[in-house]
Amino acid sequence: FDRLLSIKAALETQFGTAAVNKYFESAYAREIYNIGKQKDLNELEKFKLDVQSKIPELSDKFIAYADYKFHEGEENNHIYATAYLSVHCSNYRELNSAAWKYYEEVDKSELLNEALFWAQKSVRLDENWFNTDTYAHLLYKLDRKAEAKEAALRSIEVAIRDGYDPAETKTL
What we know:
It contains eleven helices and no strands. It is mainly α and 172 residues long. The longest helix has 22 residues. It is globular.
């Protein structure tokens, strides 16, 4: 891995910065997952220092993701979720999954509004029935009924377009 980091500039010239960064994201994702699973704060801090020194241009994103995964399930995870999902995440599935989880588990409007932002971001990245449905449900839960109805109608259109049964969305 250190060898690849040492030739990162050459790889970027050959394959493009986006492709190389995507590779490093994948490589670090496994390490981040393991750190989150272990819940070893020393390992988390060691990882942060390592990332900052070896790949500083991506360190903010990787550190935000590591904190989010490490603190998953904790009461204050919304701080880390917001830092990662709102700023750094570009995976429509991950954004939608987090937004739906908040829909199911959270009642505070401040946090639901954050989840609404994630659902919107997910839709912008790849509009599909899953994230348009999440968006409509969050609007409904936030008591924004007129917007929820409009979003639900759009979600039903998307479901039909993509070959899904929109029955759940129709309940809104």
